[in-house]
Amino acid sequence: MSNKENLDHATQTREPKELDFYADLNDFLTTDEVAKILKVSNSYLAKLRFDSYNKDKDGNLRADFLPFFKAGKSIRYKKSDVLAWIERNMVRG
């Protein structure tokens, strides 16, 4: 078995460590951080969060909805959701 195969095997078989969870916490962004990334205002992000804006006439979430979660008064976005939202809204000619 080569070194690369050993490393791949070790990575696949190791038990998740408690520290892995905490490393993933950096994958969450604040409203200010998302606004800077997208170069939009915080009020635009608030508009995107507004329920009636994000639902179609049947009450289903629109395809361009930017997922977020609230913890108390804090709003957070997963970095992967922001990147996926950018890709979904990319205009290609």
Briefly say what this structure is:
The chain is mainly alpha-helical.
Mean pLDDT: 79
Low-confidence stretches: none
Listing every helix as H and every strand as E from the N terminus to the C terminus, the arrangement reads: HHEHHHEEH
Strand content: 5-15%
Strand order of the largest sheet: 1-3-2
Helix content: 40-55%
Largest sheet, in brief, is: 3 strands, antiparallel
Helices, by number, come to 6
Q: Tell me the radius of gyration.
A: 18 Å
What is the overall shape? Answer: globular
Distance between the termini: 47 Å
How many distinct beta strands? 3
Secondary-structure-derived class: mainly alpha
Description:
The chain has six helices and three strands; from the N terminus they run ααβαααββα. The chain has helices spanning 3-13, 18-24, 31-38, 42-49, 51-54, 79-88, and strands at 28-30, 69-71, 74-78. It is globular. It is mostly helical and 93 residues long. A hairpin with a 2-residue loop joins β2 (69-71) and β3 (74-78). The chain has a domain at 27-88. The protein has a three-stranded antiparallel β-sheet with strand order 1-3-2. The mean pLDDT is 79.
Strand and helix map with partners:
Elements lengths: L2 H11 L4 H7 L3 E3 H8 L3 H8 L1 H4 L14 E3 L2 E5 H10 L5
Antiparallel strand pairs: 1-3, 2-3
Summary keywords:
globular, mainly alpha, 3-stranded antiparallel β-sheet, 93 residues
